[in-house]
């Protein structure tokens, strides 16, 4: 609804109440309504799901229209990210938020820091989604509040042209609210547990849920060892549970991202049920590391498979887990991906051991041969040593092309000694274009970094501690933080404003008129940052 229409509607309502509501100002109510566009998390989920579907269609038409996100572990971090994006690029188009299960475990659990193994409270996941959107909605209210102050100033100055321009800007305002792709890990239990948690996440505002094919009680970080996968049918129950949750809550465009960890997972907890040769369970079992046995070779407790008239004994470890054959990871990833898309998934996730466009493309080519519009969500993970990986990739390509690489030690390419070399320059250029290259060549619709703000918080805190507690003292803060905030236009340099003090003053004036005791007077030191 347009700003003026809000005013008219509220004016009519107030008038209809006659005397009792006469102190209520219609335009003040209109401002509060515009500043609070989204009333519930479900409204956010429906709105952002529509954005994602539109972006997916745009990517299908043009692979340069890929999307990006950064993982944020606190509402304030997510808010500042979106404020920064609007400041630098003028739009939030194709920029999302990512909610990382790793960061929830490491930073948001009441148990304290935990590894990424689904040991944290499942309720902390929807709680962070709600927190992220609380801060994004506050960013809207704050920015619009500033526009309303400018509107009052334009009216006071009798500047009709500026008044109209501001009202037009209000009517065409782009919200800070963007899609969040939220990590639901392996579902935190069985399919019913997955459904219950999915509902809470969607009600908090999540339009996209990412779920992985690991055993929920043995879940590991995608970049750690010891991962254990489940048969496809077990995983598909959880995919369906997520879809039921979306549909029950009326988020019909909800997005499900199915992530396969099979490339680095060499173990399974279960042998799949198979009733017909070549069915999905049989395909899953075909990757098991087995030995052929005769009837007389059977031992107590052996698990035996019958395949093509042969008796096969899967290799079972002391942990009671079964082992896959070496070298089957890519084949399993491809089967996982095709199966997921054929059973309700919208996007794929593949955890790789290195950021290599051709490795990813090799798998996606096989998936797209069956499902041409298959799209990938890819983790540009801080668990990769990007510098070393790409320098080694360039080294290998130079060597394959017959170039002289005698000046380089492949195992020590991380060294600063190589930073200005031809090899390092080429590697940095490949890192710079990795996302565009992956979108074009490997079907990557969405590039995310799982936990960048974990690392930026640690780095910036280290730099401040080194300077402030050292010889620089207060200059360590002023020179490296506040002076940069002022000169680079960082909004939170006015931290009172960012925390909502000006919004509170506006409300006090609405509620109390001239009797309002406001914080933003001449003695507020934030005036030094005008």
Task: Please explain how this structure is put together.
The protein has 530 residues and is of the alpha/beta class. The protein is 49% helix and 11% strand. It contains 19 helices and 14 strands. The strands form three sheets. It has an eight-stranded parallel β-barrel with strand order 1-2-3-4-6-12-13-14, surrounded by eight helices. A three-stranded mixed β-sheet has the order 5-7-11, with no helix packed on it. Strand 3 (180-183), helix 8 (191-204) and strand 4 (208-212) form a beta-alpha-beta unit. Helix 4 crosses helix 6. The model has no long low-confidence stretch (mean pLDDT 93).
In short:
By secondary structure, the chain is α/β, with parallel strands linked by helices. Helix content is about 50%, strand content about 10%.
Radius of gyration: 28 Å
Helix content: 40-55%
Largest sheet: 8 strands, parallel, barrel
State mean pLDDT (0 to 100 scale).
93
How far apart are the first and last residues' alpha carbons, in Å? 32 Å
Strand tally is 14
Name the structural class. alpha/beta
Quaternary structure classification? single chain
Give the percentage of residues in beta strands. Answer: 5-15%
Q: Categorize the overall geometry.
A: globular
Reading side by side through the largest sheet, how are the strands ordered? 1-2-3-4-6-12-13-14
Low-confidence stretches: none
Count of DSSP helices? 19
């Amino acid at each position: 609804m347009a700003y003026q229409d809000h005013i008219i509607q509220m004016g009519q309502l107030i008038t209809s109440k006659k005397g009792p509501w006469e102190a209520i100002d219609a335009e003040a109510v209109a401002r509060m309504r515009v500043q609070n566009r989204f009333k519930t998390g479900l409204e956010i989920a429906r709105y952002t799901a529509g954005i994602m579907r539109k972006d997916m269609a745009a990517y299908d038409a043009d692979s340069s229209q890929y999307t990006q996100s950064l993982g944020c572990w606190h509402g304030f971090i997510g808010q500042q990210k979106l404020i920064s994006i609007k400041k630098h690029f003028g739009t939030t188009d194709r920029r999302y938020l990512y909610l990382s299960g790793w960061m929830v475990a490491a930073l948001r659990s009441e148990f304290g820091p935990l590894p990424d193994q689904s040991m944290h409270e499942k309720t902390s996941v929807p709680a962070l989604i709600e927190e992220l959107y609380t801060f994004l909605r506050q960013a809207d209210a704050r920015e619009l509040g500033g526009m309303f102050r400018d509107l009052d100033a334009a009216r006071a100055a009798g500047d009709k042209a500026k008044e109209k321009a501001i009202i037009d800007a209000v009517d065409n305002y782009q919200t800070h609210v963007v899609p969040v792709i939220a990590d639901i890990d392996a579902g935190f239990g069985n399919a019913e547990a997955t459904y219950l948690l999915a509902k809470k996440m969607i009600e908090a505002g999540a339009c996209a849920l990412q779920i992985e094919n690991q055993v929920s009680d043995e879940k590991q970080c995608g970049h750690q060892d010891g991962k254990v996968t489940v048969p496809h049918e077990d995983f598909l129950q959880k995919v369906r549970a997520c879809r039921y949750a979306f549909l029950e809550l009326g988020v019909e465009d909800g997005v499900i991202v199915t992530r396969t960890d099979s490339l680095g997972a060499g173990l399974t907890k279960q042998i799949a049920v198979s009733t017909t040769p070549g069915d999905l369970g049989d395909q899953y079992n075909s990757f098991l590391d087995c030995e052929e046995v005769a009837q007389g070779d059977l031992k107590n407790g052996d698990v035996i498979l019958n395949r093509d008239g042969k008796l096969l004994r899967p290799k079972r470890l002391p942990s009671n887990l079964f082992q896959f054959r070496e070298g089957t990871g890519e084949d399993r990833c491809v089967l996982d991906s095709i199966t997921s898309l054929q059973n309700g998934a919208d996007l794929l996730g593949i955890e790789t051991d290195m950021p290599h466009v051709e490795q990813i493309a090799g798998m996606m080519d096989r998936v797209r041969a069956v499902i041409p519009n298959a799209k990938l969500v890819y983790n540009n993970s801080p668990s990769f040593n990007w510098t070393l990986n790409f320098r080694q990739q360039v080294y290998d390509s130079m060597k394959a092309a017959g170039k002289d690489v005698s000046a380089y030690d492949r195992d020590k390419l991380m060294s600063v000694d190589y930073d200005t070399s031809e090899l390092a320059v080429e590697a940095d250029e490949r890192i710079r274009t990795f996302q565009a290259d992956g979108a074009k060549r490997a079907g990557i619709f969405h590039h995310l970094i799982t936990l960048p703000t974990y690392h930026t918080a640690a780095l910036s805190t280290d730099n401040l501690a080194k300077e402030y507690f050292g010889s620089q003292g207060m200059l360590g803060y002023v020179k490296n933080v506040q002076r940069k905030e002022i000169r680079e236009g960082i909004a939170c340099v006015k931290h009172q404003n960012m925390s909502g003090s000006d919004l509170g003053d506006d409300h006090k004036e609405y509620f109390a008129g001239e009797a309002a005791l406001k914080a933003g007077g001449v003695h507020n030191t934030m005036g030094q940052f005008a």
